[in-house]
Design brief:
Elements lengths: L2 H20 L3 H8 L3 H13 L29 E4 L4 E4 L5 H14 L1
Antiparallel strand pairs: 1-2
Helix pairs in contact: 1-3
C-alpha cells in the first residue's frame, strides 16, 4: 500500500472513530464535518472489513460490576452492549445507579 493511501486510511480511521464515539447520527456528523453520508458509509464499511477500526494491539479489559440489592435483578438484561459500531441498549427497568456505575467504568476503559 502506498504512503498516500496509508495516510488516507489512517485519516479516515480517525474520522470514523470520531463519528462512532461522538454520539451523533451519521447524517448529523456528516453535516457538521462537511462529508457526504455515502463517503462515511464507504469508509466505515472498508475499515470494518479490514479490521482497522479496532486497535489490534489492544487487550480486552474486563471490569467487575458489583451485584447489590440496590440493583434489582429481573429476567431480562438491564443493559446490553454491542461492540460493532458501538450500540448500548438500556431497558426501562435498568436501575439508575447501575447505569451510572457502568458509564463511569466505560469512561475509564473506553
Amino acid at each position: 500500500m502506498t504512503e498516500k493511501a496509508l495516510s488516507k486510511q489512517e485519516l479516515w480511521k480517525s474520522r470514523v472513530l470520531d463519528y462512532q464515539t461522538g454520539g451523533l447520527s451519521s447524517h448529523d456528523w456528516c453535516g457538521q464535518n462537511h462529508f457526504h453520508i455515502s463517503t462515511l458509509r464507504y469508509w466505515t464499511s472498508k475499515l470494518d472489513r479490514n479490521n482497522c477500526i479496532c486497535d489490534t494491539d489492544s487487550i480486552p479489559v474486563f471490569a467487575e460490576l458489583p451485584i447489590s440489592t440496590t440493583f434489582p435483578l429481573c429476567g431480562a438484561a438491564p443493559v446490553t452492549i454491542h461492540m460493532g459500531a458501538i450500540r448500548i441498549e438500556i431497558a426501562d427497568t435498568c436501575h439508575p445507579d447501575l447505569l451510572s456505575h457502568l458509564l463511569s467504568i466505560l469512561k475509564i476503559y473506553a
